[in-house]
Amino acid sequence: MSEKTRIALHYTLYKIEALLLSGDRYECCCCGKSSRRFLAHGNLAKRQNIKCPHCLSLERTRILCMYIRNVVFKENPKPLRVLHFAPVKGLKDFLRNSPQVSEYIDADINPNVATYQADITQIPYADHSFDLILCSHILYCVPEDRKAMQELHRVLRPGGRVLIVDTIEGEITQELSHLPAQILREKYGDEATCRVYGRDIVRILGQYGFESKIIDYVKQLPTDFVEKECLTDAFDSEIVDCLKR
Asked: What class, spelled out in words, does domain 58-244 have in CATH?
């Protein structure tokens, strides 16, 4: 069975599960659909009531969706050209169907999970091509992450922004690629982990021409919305908003 077939089967099984979870207690802002509960998710330990059964969005995806809707779109009245690395279905569908997006391109190094194949360290687009780039939980597993940052800056137009979502722990970035795969898998849930970023990611991005800030956006959302979207215990959801000056 090919990887594309496995992915298609995966989505089919979730559609069946979504039917079994019909209800209106919780709602997903990415797909706009409701459920009586969300699905469990987690590599190291399963966390309950996290993943939308309709579009498979996680907390970080729904928070990012609201940040784009409430902040990015409002600050940019003209339709945006968007590049989305490692797309997830819910956010992908939201952006692709939004009138505030003039062109949507989803890309990944794995051709089976996105429309276009692209290496984030060698982005196959011209300088100043995009108004908005999304990069969620990617840079931590890119060996040459500085080269990726340089490329993101290159293809972004002046005044454009990159939204990065990644695990941020402590003040200083820890490089981990020297550790054995088993330790990475057991401790971080992914043997491809190259690093865990600290809050110094803002300084690192500044070396490549970005003016960045870390935003814990869930704290700015209404309490009733947070509860409805299952964001109360949001995990890995801080957004690094990077502007190209």
From this structure: alpha beta
- The pLDDT tens digits for 207-219 are 999 999 999 999 9
Distance CA 28, CA 61 (A): 10
Separation of alpha carbons 40 and 76, rounded Å? 35
Integer Cα distance of 26 and 34 in angstroms: 5
- The residue ranges of DSSP E strands in the chain, in sequence order, are 26-27, 34-35, 39-41, 47-51, 80-85, 101-108, 116-117, 130-136, 156-165, 174-175, 195-196, 210-215, 239-244
pLDDT (0 to 100) of residue 142: 97
Q: Give the pair of three-digit tokens for residue 185.
A: 């898998």
What whole-number distance in Å separates Cα of residue 71 and Cα of residue 68? 6
C-alpha span between 54 and 34 (Å, rounded): 8
Across residues 220-243, what is the average pLDDT?
93
Each residue's pLDDT tens digit, 109-152? 998 889 999 999 999 999 999 999 999 999 999 999 999 999 99
Cβ contacts of residue 116 below 8 Å, gap of 6+? 105, 106, 107, 108
166, 241 Cβ separation under 8 angstroms: no
Greatest CA separation found in the chain? 50
Where in the chain are the domains? 58-244
Q: How much is the pLDDT for 114?
A: 93
